[in-house]
Design a protein that fits this description.
The chain is α/β, with parallel strands linked by helices. The protein has ten helices and five strands. It has a five-stranded mixed β-sheet with strand order 1-2-3-4-5, with helices on both faces.
């Protein structure tokens, strides 16, 4: 019996270890294991999520995976959130945005501490407006970026208006036809009053808010003249101009206006404008970061490659060797572009340098997976500091992932 007990215990321990090892190690706020994003997109989004965490303390993990390891997408998202500790300890303010392109599944997993800010219905709206349309059209990268920015924008602009408190009235058990008729009349009056009130409320909202949104739009257009802003960002911003113009053409005396639908249109424009404003801010910050950190990164890359080559000299992993070969080739390319750099050149070069750093990190990670029998050494893991993590622990040790959020497929 003792031998049987020991055998069962060892089997259960082995199963537990296997379960704990089924999730990859976090590499930053952006964990693009399925390689849906370009290096530039990964860097910019990671910087945006890092800045967002500093402003709000909310931690968002964007994760793309080649496969779900025979789990459902919601269980995998919860497992990632718990394994990585996404969110601050004690606050449960983490979000996991998971995309599994092979299974054509996605999940926005919201921890319990911020579910009042990002409700299930709000997460569904983000899924339907900012994510799935891009996935269905084959633009995976835009769906990932759009979803992540929409989540940040929703959490930044959430100002949930309290719904009117419903008063419950109890009546005595006296019954009769007149009471029933009276209740029906009161309900009918309330419905008519609600329709009229809702119409006037939508009208008031549009007439008040559109001026504020128009002013923000004008400021965004002016800021977008900065040469460091991407042309696509300007194009997306200009695309809102016609929609906003049609709303501004409506006057208080206009007849036949569907105020409810017009309000939905204005809120949609406001939603997209918020995303564009954030994108502009991030692109300016990225250009600043490229100018400031590019030279130091350029000087650091050769040592990183040599150190990795020394560590992996006896490696049997062909993939790890290929990653290092790619890193060396890209560095030679970067070195030929080094002379006579302008600001724009530094932006381009910084992306290339970051690709090199990513290749070196992938080489170390691939080699570590090939030698997975050694689980005790953590010093050989690729550094996460350039991705916004202060140390290897990465996230803040949060929890509270119990099923809130939105599930989608395409």
């Amino acid at each position: 019996m003792q031998k049987l007990f020991l055998t069962v215990t060892l089997l259960l321990s082995g199963a537990s270890i296997t379960h704990a090892q089924q999730y990859p190690k976090a590499t930053g706020y952006v964990n693009d294991f399925a390689q849906l994003l370009s290096s530039e997109q990964r860097i910019e989004l990671n910087d945006a999520l890092a800045s967002f965490e500093k402003e709000t303390s909310i931690e968002i993990a964007v994760v793309t995976v080649p496969w779900l390891n025979n789990q459902s997408v919601d269980e995998y998202a919860k497992g990632i959130g718990k394994e990585w500790g996404v969110g601050k300890s004690g606050q449960n303010n983490g979000i996991v945005f998971l995309i599994a392109p092979k299974e054509r599944k996605m999940r926005i997993e919201v921890a319990s501490g911020i579910r009042s800010m990002l409700t299930d219905s709000r997460a569904d709206q983000i899924r339907d407006l900012a994510v799935l349309p891009h996935f269905k059209s084959g633009n995976m990268a835009q769906g990932v970026l759009g979803g992540a920015h929409a989540i940040m924008n929703a959490l930044n602009t959430t100002s949930e208006q309290p719904s009117p408190a419903s008063s419950e009235q109890s009546y005595d058990s006296t019954t009769g036809l007149w009471i029933g008729v009276g209740v029906a009349v009161v309900v009918l009056i309330l419905i008519v009053a609600l329709v009229v009130t809702n119409r006037f409320e939508n009208r008031r909202y549009i007439l008040e808010k559109r001026g504020v949104i128009t002013n923000r739009f004008s400021q965004a257009l002016e800021t977008a003249k900065n040469p460091e802003i991407k042309e696509k960002t300007r194009t997306d911003l200009n695309g809102l101009a016609e929609r906003l113009s049609s709303i501004n053409e409506v006057t208080p005396k206009s007849r036949g206006v569907a105020w409810s639908k017009l309000r939905e249109e204005l809120e949609s424009v406001n939603f997209l404008l918020g995303s564009a404003e954030r994108k502009i801010k991030q692109e300016i910050a990225f250009a600043k970061k490229a100018r400031e950190e590019g030279p130091e990164l350029f000087n650091r890359i050769p040592g990183m490659i040599e150190e990795a080559e020394g560590r992996l000299a006896n490696s049997t992993s062909a993939k790890a060797a290929q990653h290092l070969k790619d890193a060396r080739a890209k560095y030679d390319q970067a070195r030929t572009q080094y002379s006579g750099l302008s600001t724009t050149d530094w932006i381009i070069l910084y992306v290339l340098l970051s690709e090199i750093e990513s290749s070196v990190n992938r080489a170390a990670a691939t080699n570590h997976q090939a030698e997975s029998s050694d689980h005790s050494s953590h010093s050989d893991q690729p550094s996460n500091s350039s991705l916004g993590f202060g140390d290897a622990s990465g996230f803040g040790g949060g929890g509270g992932f119990d099923g809130g959020g939105s599930l989608g497929s395409w």
